[in-house]
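This section describes the prediction task in plain terms. A model, or a person checking by hand, is given the sequence of a single protein chain and must write out its three-dimensional structure as a string of tokens. No templates, partner chains or ligands are provided. The sample shown here is typical of the held-out split.
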Amino acid sequence: MSPVAVAPMVLAVNATLPVSDLADFIAHARTRPVLLRLRGAVDGALKQPALLERLTALGAEPLSLTPAAFDDYVQKDAAYWGEIVRRLGLPLDN
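The expected answer:
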């Protein structure tokens, strides 16, 4: 894990804890063309130096994942936290 860009001597929180701030778009499969267009716009925005500078100043480290990589991330994250919930015997609210 890498340090926080604005404070190189400080490790990112996710370097020691399994956490992240995840922002993405999840929608019905029939909206795929719209989501791909939106993803292209977001990816383009994330290449703008002013936006990257602002996000970095806020401590964010933007990362753009392909739909397949995001799906893989979500599946692994759900399995990870699901196992913790099972081990601890936490009740699930419906």
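For orientation: Helices lie at 32-45, 49-57, 67-88.
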